[in-house]
Structure prediction request, 329 residues.
Amino acid sequence: MKTSTPQEEAPLLEINNLKTHFPIRSKIFSRVTGYIYAVDGVTIHINKGETLGLVGESGSGKSTLGKSILRLVEPSSGEIKIQGTDISKLSKSRMFPFRRNVQIVFQDPYSSLNPRIPVGKIVSETMKVHGIASGAEAEEKVQKLFERVGLRASQTLNYANEFSGGQRQRIGIARALALNPKLIIADEPVSALDVSVQAQIINLFMDLQEEFGLSYLFIAHDLAVVAHISHRIAVMYLGKIVEIADKSKLFKNPQHPYTQALLSAIPTPNPEVKARSRELIEGDIPSPRNPPPGCRFHSRCPKVLDQCRVEVPRMTEAQPGHWVACHLC
Ligand code: SF4
Prediction:
């Protein structure tokens, strides 16, 4: 499934039918009693210099998908191609050079910053491990990186607990940039920040993209957050992509009832408009341990048909570059 993008060259990242199923056991070492179908047959691609926004409620499998691409969790099957090379089954040593190309920025960088080591040292160690720079050269590069992400060079000597949430996110971005990656997976990078700081961090991501030609998989549970930064948007529900399109097409003409509901939940300045267009979805997202048969959204869909309860909708190209998995399309 290829959607239209400004790029003609081969995708930087290509994911084909990726599945990440976590086995469930009643006790350690006992037999498997079931699976959590966290990611269940995802096919997406990201071009050079492109941002793909990935949205969906908590529990939709977005973060697991991001971690599976980096193999921080091992996928069960499918392909993960980086510039044409499938890394999904490479050994750790053969994975190593590819790790540089794809970095991750977490929602809470504090949990991944060692509180006993100055933050500059944490970043320079990453450079050393990957053979990019060491010693005074690495220190100088880290200071420049800190300045580039809006911190002071002198702050490389501080510890993680001396920074605000927004500053820590800037450190997380500096650490990701230290390896000159081609793709950054930003996993809910602004969800824990105040709205004013969110805008600053999103603008920083956009400036860095232009400067370094970066690609992003930008994960968020809120369509409003990805709206500004994304070129295309993929909507994920219970382990599957249900709609993917250019941002403008998705916002102007959402096809999937789930996307329509997510869009109608975005606050608008005009309360009359909001009241008329709001389409609430009932209930919570079902457990990925027992996903509903047929269309996974059928238990909450306001437009459900009998067919939806038994037949899985296929991804079809409703309009050029606009793909939807719904029996109504
Ligand atoms: Fe709703 Fe059926 Fe479409 Fe699923 S396939 S989103 S249940 S109309």
About this structure: The domain at 13-101+228-324 is CATH 3.40.50.300 (Rossmann fold). Residues 256-257, 295, 297-298, 301, 303-305, 308, 313, 326-328 surround iron/sulfur cluster (CB under 6 Å). The radius of gyration is 21 Å. Residues 3-7, 272-276 have pLDDT under 50 and may be disordered.
